[in-house]
Amino acid sequence: MSESVYDKIGGEAAVNAAVDLFYRKVLADDRINGFFEGTDMDKQSAKQKAFLTMALGGPNNYTGEDMRKGHAHLVERGLNDSHFDAVMENLGATLQELGVPDELIGEAAAIAESTRNDVLGK
Amino acid sequence: MTKVVYQGRSYERLDDETVLRCLLRNDIRAPYSCESGACQSCTMQATKGAIPPNSQEDLKETQKSLGYFKPCVCKPDGDLEVVALDDAHQQKHSTTVIEKSFLNDEILRLRLSSDDSIEYRAGQFINLFKDDLIRSYSLASLPDSEDALELHIKRVPTGLMSNWLCDDVQVGDQLPIAGPMGECFYHEVENEVGILAVGTGSGLAPLWGVVRDALTQGFDKPIMLFHGGMTPESLYYVDELRELEKVHDNFSYFPCVSDVDESNLPAGFSLGFPNDVAFSKQPTLSKWQVFLCGHPDMVNNTKRKAFLQGASLSDIHADPFLPASPT
After folding, report:
1. Which residues of A are less than 8 Å from B313 in CB distance?
2. Model-wide pTM > 0.90
3. All domains of chain B, ordered by start, with CATH?
4. Contacts of A24 in chain B (CB under 8 A)
5. What is the pLDDT of residues B38-83, one digit of tens each?
6. How far, in Å, CA of B146 to CA of B151, rounded?
7. What is the ipTM of this complex?
8. Are the beta carbons of A46 and B37 separated by less than 8 Å?
9. Which residues of A touch B21 (CB under 8 A)?
């Protein structure tokens, strides 16, 4: 198997650098920050790290079923494609800001994109 | 075959099994999520045995020093004794009240001495026991230069513990405590540029410890302390903090009051909530260490805003003073 984006950009250290940037963008984004009202920020930040690790092809044990269960309460509150698109945009902007080459951003986006139906409960 | 010891019982760990899987297989309801060391939701504390370094990766330095580790990626070579974080630090100490004085109408200062040497960091908190009641109080004292433990207790109108402490407890009485706990203390961080501390009411207690601890450690970058209350009378240690301001050029103190007319504002006081005043004086917080203590709404809102203004989450130390749940 070829090397993952996760390994190419520097593994866990790179993800640690990306987490604050990414989470800050998400929280500042009025299209989606309503879904994060009242959540524990430290726990949420750790979840963002798990998400980024997965999107970059790093070690993770998330299944489609986990994604489905983890977001079901948000789908009930109206989580839809437009919100998923907003998260994808923030993901791309974060990796760009960190100087990750475009083709690797594309790979990460493809992995994240593959979770869309599970996240949105389709 | 090695063992995992949890709540006094030993469980045999299968070859290649993680500590988390071993506990789950034995029907112990341990929290977990990602099982790959990323989400930290399963974090526990090891009290005996060698912790493999990979299971501590990316935890805060303070947490590592306390023996925190991630059981979902932990396959120790030998036996490991572990506790859930909720159960950690429950060792009780007996203390004696050596001083009792009121700092203003609603805040009591207690000083306690103990025969045990209690190791703590300025800003951590302890649990105080009265029969079945348990309440958490922050430590305002400095461990190295002050022998007594100092607590600031706010009288809550219907509070079972606070009214008992304010009205009935006498100098010489014994009070059982447990702890210390919490991560609201100063530790050096690379490239830090300043400390911003915001507290309401008795939330000054840990900040009084943290600020003096940082100064004692020789922290020479700006330290800004914002203490808020409704009226000037609801604040305390105003003279002491102004004195500290005179001694240390890098320390500035901002008493903030929210419920007075501008015309009645005493000299040197700011009008408004302390978090609002703080952001108006220091709008960008990249590389700042931020300490937030007191009213839970203030703490949670300010934490979010401080993060959006550039502070790293690992540099925000938040200590919401939650009201006791009715018993």
Report:
1. 20, 23, 41-42, 45
2. no
3. 2-84 (3.10.20.30), 92-181 (2.40.30.10), 194-320 (3.40.50.80)
4. 307-308
5. 778 899 999 899 999 999 987 877 788 778 999 999 999 999 999 8
6. 13
7. 0.85
8. no
9. none
